[in-house]
Amino acid sequence: MDLQIPTINNLIDLWLTEDLGRGDLTTVLDDDEVCSAIWIAKQSGIFCSGPLVQKIFQKLDKSAQISLEVDEGGAFKSGQKVLSVTGKKSALLAGERTSLNLAMHLSGIATETKHLVSQLNGTGVRLADTRKTTPGLRLLEKYAFKCGGGMNHRMGLDDAAMLKENHIAWSRGISESVQSLRESIPWTAKIIVEAETEEQAKEAVISGADGVLLDEIPPNQLKILVPILRKLARTSSNERESRQIVLEASGIDPRKIKDYASTGVDFISSSSPITKSYWIDFSMRFNKGQ
Amino acid sequence: MDLQIPTINNLIDLWLTEDLGRGDLTTVLDDDEVCSAIWIAKQSGIFCSGPLVQKIFQKLDKSAQISLEVDEGGAFKSGQKVLSVTGKKSALLAGERTSLNLAMHLSGIATETKHLVSQLNGTGVRLADTRKTTPGLRLLEKYAFKCGGGMNHRMGLDDAAMLKENHIAWSRGISESVQSLRESIPWTAKIIVEAETEEQAKEAVISGADGVLLDEIPPNQLKILVPILRKLARTSSNERESRQIVLEASGIDPRKIKDYASTGVDFISSSSPITKSYWIDFSMRFNKGQ
Amino acid sequence: MDLQIPTINNLIDLWLTEDLGRGDLTTVLDDDEVCSAIWIAKQSGIFCSGPLVQKIFQKLDKSAQISLEVDEGGAFKSGQKVLSVTGKKSALLAGERTSLNLAMHLSGIATETKHLVSQLNGTGVRLADTRKTTPGLRLLEKYAFKCGGGMNHRMGLDDAAMLKENHIAWSRGISESVQSLRESIPWTAKIIVEAETEEQAKEAVISGADGVLLDEIPPNQLKILVPILRKLARTSSNERESRQIVLEASGIDPRKIKDYASTGVDFISSSSPITKSYWIDFSMRFNKGQ
Amino acid sequence: MDLQIPTINNLIDLWLTEDLGRGDLTTVLDDDEVCSAIWIAKQSGIFCSGPLVQKIFQKLDKSAQISLEVDEGGAFKSGQKVLSVTGKKSALLAGERTSLNLAMHLSGIATETKHLVSQLNGTGVRLADTRKTTPGLRLLEKYAFKCGGGMNHRMGLDDAAMLKENHIAWSRGISESVQSLRESIPWTAKIIVEAETEEQAKEAVISGADGVLLDEIPPNQLKILVPILRKLARTSSNERESRQIVLEASGIDPRKIKDYASTGVDFISSSSPITKSYWIDFSMRFNKGQ
Amino acid sequence: MDLQIPTINNLIDLWLTEDLGRGDLTTVLDDDEVCSAIWIAKQSGIFCSGPLVQKIFQKLDKSAQISLEVDEGGAFKSGQKVLSVTGKKSALLAGERTSLNLAMHLSGIATETKHLVSQLNGTGVRLADTRKTTPGLRLLEKYAFKCGGGMNHRMGLDDAAMLKENHIAWSRGISESVQSLRESIPWTAKIIVEAETEEQAKEAVISGADGVLLDEIPPNQLKILVPILRKLARTSSNERESRQIVLEASGIDPRKIKDYASTGVDFISSSSPITKSYWIDFSMRFNKGQ
Amino acid sequence: MDLQIPTINNLIDLWLTEDLGRGDLTTVLDDDEVCSAIWIAKQSGIFCSGPLVQKIFQKLDKSAQISLEVDEGGAFKSGQKVLSVTGKKSALLAGERTSLNLAMHLSGIATETKHLVSQLNGTGVRLADTRKTTPGLRLLEKYAFKCGGGMNHRMGLDDAAMLKENHIAWSRGISESVQSLRESIPWTAKIIVEAETEEQAKEAVISGADGVLLDEIPPNQLKILVPILRKLARTSSNERESRQIVLEASGIDPRKIKDYASTGVDFISSSSPITKSYWIDFSMRFNKGQ
Questions:
Q1: pLDDT tens-digit profile of D23-55?
Q2: Which of C152, C239, C244 sits opposite B186 (nearest CB)?
Q3: E237-261 residue pLDDT tens
Q4: What kind of architecture, by CATH, is found in domain A6-118+277-286?
Q5: ∠ CA D28-D32-D36 to the nearest 5 degrees?
Q6: Which residue, A4, C173, D200, F98, has fewest beta-carbon neighbours within 10 Å?
Q7: Nearest to D189 among F159, F230, F267 (CB)
Q8: Do B4 and D20 touch (CB under 8 A)?
Q9: Hey, which residues does E286 pair with through a beta bridge?
């Protein structure tokens, strides 16, 4: 994630405003004394959000310092210290919940992603995410997905064009839609077609799409279909248009992910690390001595 | 949730910007024709987010209309139609993912909340949420918690004061902290003390706190402690300060929630409907005829 | 006031934009030389806004430094130096009017508040503010009210529920309204009932409200009513609901505030320090030598 | 005031957010039924803010309608109905305090302005405001000043250049400063010099300034000085630069405003209608029948 | 351009605020009477910005109506009426300059683009834009480029990855950089390599980049290089990676654009329609009768 | 330009967001190493935007440092180094395009302005800009106009009032309009009348306007009209209203600007440096060693 972008700064303001509202009522008890705290993992998992946690605390106290004990995307065990932070008491109290909430949520996603990705190890097939992300957190959740070893799919409706069921139903067919899109969208944007049948998949390949999303097709059928599509891609191209076709299996059952890995697809996409994951529990412990 | 507040409008802009970015690349394929679509539930649950879904689509097309087939907070079965929407094709396509993501996430929380709440039926004890909410979605997730039958706890650090472990460690004790807060915060704001031991709980009651959060105390110990605290509250009050004390069990294991219900506490708080719930799956089906 | 919250930063941007618009036309005459200036009080009063003045100047020049000669909430005499500031000439000129306007307005409120509060000294009764605040400045004016020795009432429509005349007229009575609110609002939010008659006040107490606002009831009537209400609160509570009732006199004539202090109420609320106060005059004098 | 500008819309959002925060807790008691209410003046004065009140309520309910019974800038008596409003109950309750606060504050300023302006009737001298305005409300307060019959001075540091004591002290004198400004600022921007002595005033006139602000000069001295300055303006101009000089008395005692009116100045400026005015009391009464 | 996105709404607010500032001083002369006006072209060209002009006027007056006499992207002659608008006088005056400025600027770009594009007619080669766009207007200027018949290149640093001179210099070579990017960026994002020599271009093709930007290579050299690169693309691909390579000529002299069109490249990119175009002159004439 | 104003900060955020979107995809290749780069002019011109370039890079890397080799408003030759910048690689890459785009655009305007201004040298007549500026960039383009030696006209509809053709057509004549405006606008705001005929110009002078914009009147006619208007200004003024009238020629052909300079007008206004200028080409070269 590119922490330079103004969007990140605005999101942190939004998150803090949400929790602090008109101001932490208990800050009256605290002074500007500097103190330190550590985060302890209460279960094992994959860590995600270190650079963001640092930015959150520094928004409240410019001189706050974070020291990460676990690498971004690295594994931790229950009971392990994952980071320490030093800063003004009022800043540590004010940023505690927001930073923990973010880290617990994102680490939950990274952990679940890693769980799926590890089942694809050695297959050459990669796991991709989807646009099923919590409103307001897409950048962050997709970042967590990468921390867990996954690969991002398109980020929004604007950086790649996907022809879905409805687009096709409303148009004069896949080929015309792909051609029409090629005329209108930036040439740097890929076109992907969602196919639910063999026929649609073939038409998509012939149409010159950059990728085909094979939706809810069982592994055994995919195993037969994939080589057909790849051959079609080669033969349907002319000198100037020899083309690479990316094949992706979607709408899968995560428990059967290994079956899909042997079908020859390039990617398997799954929303489950984001829509079906629990938060990882971290606890913030203040150094009483200070 | 009060949909009048400007915050809701700003959040919808944020969510749409996140998905639409520089604009839906496929809108070039669509016109301004009006079409309709329905949402089908792919599993059973408790519905949440109807008024928000309406606002999302109306942001894209002022004349879009939503018709809810399931009441907000009502139950639905797998396969059931939960709502229908009519509006411009481009608006329906542009708002599809954002509205579904929101509804699937919030309905997941409402469903999980209802699951816990139903175990408290008839006990007079209510389930409360916590500040463990996804950054940027607190208002919404707490609203979903209410839709599922739960009761909201404080909304942020500013509308009630909670003295936690660290506040107490850094101060000259519970009583002084409570008294100091009473002097400084709005008189309309309640003071709650987090207690991890019987001793702390008693001191909290005597200090005149409005509520005591009994953290990670097993049900059998709670059963003994609660009557002691209630009696203490009565006896420690003078004419002008006769007081009601709210007792809340926190840090509980959701699987044992019934054990806590019989301890005499007023509330049981749990973050699990928010931090440990899955999205409920809805599918949006466009009316092909149009 | 919690200066950490992003809201404060945004307000300062708003205030400076309002005065600077497209930029100070006279900055072309100035360079980035550092200079210093002092603020002199032209009348006596209670000082308020020091930390905000610092933030305003630092927004224009990060290295600007303020030195407060009078404590926040402290008294000053006419002719006294209240603070000194050092920074770039262009920043001092650009921030002069905005910072003075804020400090003069807030110190006027703090001064007027102290004037009323001092009449309650020794009575145990505290002065509370209201929601009658200048649009855009509620946080600041309520902060000034506290600097003058007052106590804040609820901050908005969202952190405590007050049943007013219209709510009651539109509902099936006070008791049902209170009970209905208890079911729906966060348990940490207090419920206050505005009562204009003895009958309403009694019903409010019996309903289990946390506070009763006794509106426009003369001191001699209050003196009789208050003990009745306190007794009613004790007797109407059961074991689990023994309750503290806060009684507040509102709609008072500030000139007769002492009469209200002896009625036994806990609070007297008044908007007059905010709606009926003049600005305190400060003058900013630049050090010519620099 | 130009209600078209986006700034007005943003301010209304800010004001409502301030009062509504996370949402009106009592809206749970209300439905979307339409009701009506009236505003009654509890004292006499000059009305100001009608179009803004309309925009506030319409922000909450697009179909809300206001009917003004008193013209903007018109006089009303105690007990008089100043406006009526019809809209959804929840919108009327949510907008009540914000709209009243604005109208009470602005009408207070308009009333006080009219009080001063009426003393200048028939003199040809007009009353001008200053940049002493409540942070965040300059546009509104200056608008109220106009409603009361006053004339606006510059709106900020960017639409006219005023050379004040410090600018002059830091430069090589008034003439050089004026000339330097003429070279750098838009030709459409006027240059005004603040003069505290006869000598400064003369130098200002000779320098070619568009206006001279005669600060804290007693009426009897002004009476002598003004004709001298006017003559100087005529004689110091050449064919191409024959010039009009605007003379303004500032730093006046409002109680002696009539004495200044006979000195020959064009304007008298005073911050007192803004910094030394009380709110006018309005009461909003809901129609119980609905 | 997708007019649904919140960004467009925010830009219009920004543009109007810039021109209207604290409000149009002359609106005091006008009422809310409805009037109409037309736009006349003072030179020939390609029209662009109709839907935006409509949104600008409707921001000021919801009921304003635009009627376009020339299609978006269509040609007009000097003296021709391009559109008519009806709305409140104050809205037409307030939106006049902003809407004209936008349309004149964008139509200038569309016109210049068409001029270049027309030289490529029949060649199958398309003209692409660059990231050289006026800050704050990228979406709009790229939209104008499309209106003129051009094709958009990537919209920003985030929707396609381009390896430029410095990226390569800082890395361990083109192949490693491409491979490293493939691992990290969304699979839907294309990778383009900027090549200034034949050697770099070949390495780029072999590396598996999606496109090669051939920078400042003369047409005669390109004519030889292009077939070599295309052949290399075919031969360097294996079954799974048969690939399409897009070749783009950049850094060209617009006057020699035809020479590039016959080199076999797919695209020619040029910033000149944006960086080297004049505004097209339109005049807004009000219907005096109204 | 006053860089202190929050508007500048917001614009930089807007510009960077536009280019960076969801983040620079290639930053994954870079580290936080510090490097340096220089800007080389590829043609001669007048430099403009140094302080803004510094602010852009510092937004991305607080410790970035710019060293200007050419003064703001100074001339440079083709091949000359205009500035150097040192900062983190990721910041230099992320800010490269935005800063170059701004500087190339603004320097183009400054260069074209200087070209026109140099033809007025020694005439005492100054060149003024207009409100024809690219939406979103008015402050910047007017600043560039000043860097090129021009003088700014009014900045918006709010800092000076200009009566144009339509205002006059809709009113009861010039005199009444001017008088009406004088009553309503701040006294510090000038009133300018746009005149297209001798008759209108005379009426404007008599009306007491501060300036007359003589639109599309040929030089030979202007030469006769100007002395008439100046004499009229002197004779039509009384003691209190002796007035300076500013005469401006607008709607000119830039190629004949010298002819207008000898007509006796004070200003010649032209939009051409902004609407008819090309970008100046700069190239950013990174120091490979680092």
A1: 999 886 557 889 999 999 999 999 999 999 999
A2: C152
A3: 654 454 578 999 999 999 999 999 9
A4: Alpha-Beta Complex (3.90)
A5: 110
A6: C173
A7: F159
A8: yes
A9: E37
